[in-house]
Amino acid sequence: MEAKKAKHGGGGVSLPEDVIFDVLSWLPVRSLCRFRCVCKAWRALISYDPAFAAAQKSRAAPLLAGVFLSPDRLVRRVALDGSSSWEQHGLELRVMDMGGDVLRVVELEGAVEGALVPACLDLVCVDGGAAAARLIDPATRRAVTVAGGRGRYHRFGRALSGAYKVVGCSGFNSWDRHDRRRLEITTLAPGAGAREPTSWRQVPPPQPAVFTCSCHGCTASVNGVLHFLTGHPFAPTWRSHVARLDLETEEWMTTVKAPATEWPKEGERWEITIGELKGTLSMVETVRSHLDGTACTNIWLLVDPEKGVWVKEYTMPMPRTVSLVEALEVLGDGTVLLLSTFEIEGEGKYSYLFEGEKTCVLQLYDPGTRVCKDLVKMAGNRFCGKTMTLYTGSLLSRPTNNPGQFSC
């Protein structure tokens, strides 16, 4: 049976449609965005064919989202005495590839401060603190502002049913009342407007009551479950367990014990983050010692959540200036994509025990050679956040009239 052929362009060249599909699906997003202009048939294939978008995404390198300082936006700041001034410090969300090429920019209107919420989804959440959270669809540049509630921090995830949910986490005034923190949850309605009136539901505290940390690196949404590191920050039980909130039922699940790790020895500093890796919860330990100048990063994977079984998947040697490491993705060739934070060495700038000036680097770790290769130094890109997240949507998608889709 002869393959179906199609003519494209004015040269009269005919190629089978399956060949065109296969060849184009291997190209990066930047090239495909240009090739939309070749002809109507290519535009329809690249922009509106979900099978093509899925094939291209499965073959392409991962895309990353992060918050950056906008190079050409002015923000008005008002001082306590009522005087105002204009400063060039607006924020923008950027979607970029592993080489640092920016593929999409979405201005964060009115946002002077904002932190990216790690969640490997097709929507991106930027937490504006007590003011609101903003959910952004980079493919269409549309956004929904989720306001109200008593949350000081906002976390984001998707339930197994597909519903997107935002969790508001209250702050705390004293460490001895850490088990009384309030958590609220809301569901993003299909077709929500740009600033949707939000109905918040209170989440009962976990039993037994534990401190659920919601700061940077201490939460992760994986497979419909929002995870929190637990434990008093100044106690030996710090980050000893992981509390789990089922986003579908909005009920707490059984708390999982963290991997067996020792309390930091004298002269050691530990930093721990959790995230998603290989489709499951990961815990990344970064350990450094000023006594012998060594540092390493351990990555654990939760292979059995019900039994609390962890496996140490990687141990990576690190330079002594390492401060924090986040594992973003394992690529098809087995290399691991990392976002590593390093303290800048220099007189009065570097210490193992105290915070100093830092820089973030996107790295690729090769388990075979046990070497990290620098991909992008984020400081030169006006990077203003501590984290980045995978963007799992497709920038090739065009909005449709489906009322069930995320829209504004």
Detail the topology: elements first, then pairings.
Blueprint: E1 5-8, E2 13-16, H1 17-25, H2 29-35, H3 40-48, H4 50-59, E3 63-69, E4 75-78, E5 84-87, E6 91-96, E7 102-107, E8 115-117, E9 124-127, E10 132-137, E11 142-147, E12 153-158, E13 164-169, E14 183-187, E15 195-196, E16 201-203, E17 219-222, E18 225-229, E19 241-246, E20 251-252, E21 256-257, E22 268-277, E23 280-289, E24 295-304, E25 309-317, E26 322-330, E27 336-343, E28 358-366, E29 371-377, E30 389-391
Parallel strand pairs: 11-15
Antiparallel strand pairs: 1-2, 3-6, 3-30, 4-5, 6-7, 8-9, 9-10, 10-11, 12-13, 13-14, 14-16, 17-18, 18-19, 19-20, 19-21, 22-23, 23-24, 24-25, 26-27, 27-28, 28-29
